[in-house]
Amino acid sequence: MNEMESIESRIALLPKGSITKKVIQGKDRYYLQWREGDKVRNRYVKEAELPELSAQIAERKGLQQRLVELQVASVQRSLMVSEGAQSSAEFLMGSFAAERRASYSVAPYESQDRMVNFFLSLGLGFCLEARARQLPVNGTDLSVDWVFYNRMLHCHVLVNLKDGKFRKTDLDQLGTCVKHYRDKVMQPGDNPPVGILLTTSRGPKMVEFATSVAKSDFASVYKPKLPTRHQLLDFMEKSDLLKGERV
């Protein structure tokens, strides 16, 4: 078991959430508070439990930060190898040119490091879980380029990058993958997953989201912990992924 696997195993054993204090009838009462789906849960904590519980929560946060550092370091090492052969932009565009079929992503495994590094460097709690994941849905394998787990949102974030203009069928496919994760992968304590669809041709729908939550919840809970449309377009611009005239 490598260090990242060891850290992930340890994190799974530690409590989620944070400790809050309430004053009830003039006395301090402590609660462990965490989120399950759309609901916030509370558990009363005896004062004698506080030192150990506080230490476990602090350990979890430290391990999560260490996990992100290891993931970023891994991506940076991969970037150094790929850039030794050719520039990142040339590598990306050369790889994408070979992936034109609408049923597949435009991001092959070897060219995903730059996008991964972008998400991990945002400081929004993204942890890489999988690349180029195939999901068996209704007898058909659907593709997801990147699967992240956001430790601040406590949910999976599925990202697809498609070559060309926005197509509703691509967003519908990503929505199906989001529902698959909600129904088959989501664990107790997780929030519903969300999807991000990026397209390389300039237009009003270069960045679209696929969700299974109410619009109000998405706006208030999810959006503050997700990259903005501007950040995503700026990254794609710098990576030479966008085609056509600027909008």
How would you sum up this structure, described in words?
41% of the residues lie in helices and 27% in strands. With 247 residues, the chain is an alpha+beta fold. The chain folds into 2 domains: 3-68, no CATH class; 87-238, 3-Layer(aba) Sandwich (Trna Endonuclease, Chain: A, domain 1). The strands form 2 sheets. It has a 5-stranded mixed β-sheet with strand order 4-5-6-7-8. A 3-stranded antiparallel β-sheet has the order 1-2-3, with helices on one face. Helix 1 (3-13) packs antiparallel against helix 2 (50-85) and helix 2 (50-85) runs antiparallel to helix 4. Mean pLDDT is 80; it is low at 85-111.
Short description:
This protein has 247 residues and is an alpha+beta fold.
Characteristic key phrases:
247 residues; alpha+beta; Trna Endonuclease, Chain: A, domain 1; 2 domains; 7 helices; 8 strands; 41% helix; 27% strand
Question: What is the strand arrangement across the widest sheet?
Answer: 4-5-6-7-8
- CATH class wording of the largest domain: Alpha Beta
Number of domains: 2
What overall geometry do the principal axes of the alpha carbons give? elongated
Number of helices: 7
Largest sheet: 5 strands, mixed
By helix and strand content, what is the structural category?
A: alpha+beta
Give the SSE string: HEEEHHHEEEHEEHH
**CATH architect. name of the largest domain:** 3-Layer(aba) Sandwich
Low-confidence stretches: 85-111
* CATH domain fold name of the largest domain: Trna Endonuclease, Chain: A, domain 1
Give the % helix: 40-55%
Distance between the termini: 48 Å
Mean pLDDT: 80
What does the radius of gyration come to? 20 Å
Percent of sequence in beta strands: 25-35%
Number of strands: 8
